[in-house]
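Recap from last week: sequence in, structure out.
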Amino acid sequence: LEGVRVLDATAWWAGPSACQMLANLGADVIRMESIQRPDGMRMAGAMFLQRESWWEWSSITLAANTNKRGITLNLADPEGLALCKRLIASCDVFIENFSPRVVESFGLDWDAVHALSPRTIQVRMPAFGLSGPWRDNVGFAQTMEQISGLAWTTGHVDDQPRIQRGPCDPLAGMHAAYATLVALAEREHTGRGSLLECTMVEGALNAAAEIAIEWSAYGVELGREGNRGPEGAPQNVYACRARDGREQWLALAVASDAQWRALVEELGPAHADWTGDAELATARGRRAKHDLLDAKLAAWAATRELDDVVARLVARGIPAAPVVDSRETSRHPQLVARGFFETVEHPVVGAHPLPGPPFRYATVDRWVRTPTPTMGQHNREVLREVGLSDAEIDALEASEVIGTKPKGL
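Predicted structure tokens:
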């Protein structure tokens, strides 16, 4: 996407992740926020309020905005809004995830954008769409997890639905990035921009189709099964021997009769009193006695070292893995070997491993080229590109149309 210019007027995680994907692919992405209303994600996660520039430390902000330039503009100020429109006219793509009424109050809807630049693609990422009774409702990833049915099917049988804690955000971002690539390809043929409507709720339902289809096609209501699945049995997580005072969990799934026989061999004759049950030789029988299997395997795993038991099970062709906590993810040997996490020096936070995109190009050795910009880091650079003088930029800073830290700090 070298040569493609994107104005990123999104916040939180869904929109920034969409724009980051375009930045990863070479687009010049200009991230825009304001000092009056900074991106809310800056205030989320592990905060370091005792540190200088604490608003630069949000983990998701740092991970979702690499390879971008960063500016601030107060759209509530006429000068700021006018500059935003000049930027839109200079861009190939304008992406925002405001609520529909906010966009319209700023005069940045499709008719206005198309009048500014007929070649500009506008990507709108409302929670629920630009029409319908929920049009003006706002929503976050957790909202989508409830509405799509994902939360309904997550949790233990006799417990409440559980929130997945955010996967619908980058899921929405991936859908929006894909749609943007299609619109850019279409523009190659038509020479004109398009309006794209990429709702969070429809992106979530695209990934949760099984829940809706099982009911609409077969009348089957999927519910909560804990860590069990519709096919594997036994399938669960089992606590192994603690290590250095920290809990260790084994994830195990037996998806075939052959895998069950391999597990029986691994368990050995010491457990033949229950593994020899003829009913356990079939998937139907194992599912019927899943509670028994869970109890027996939990007792067996409790005396084992996690790494050893995983290695032994995998060697026998049994799907097994350690349950990895957040402190271990960036050090996982498979991810390290593939270079999934890349390190880049941030001017405030320093160097930390950051996730790259979930795919590889044979011609790309490194994806993370620049760190997430600090607030307003590229104000002068970008505003000069649209024709402003240093004196004009100084005046904007003095009137707080632009800035480099949240207003009031």
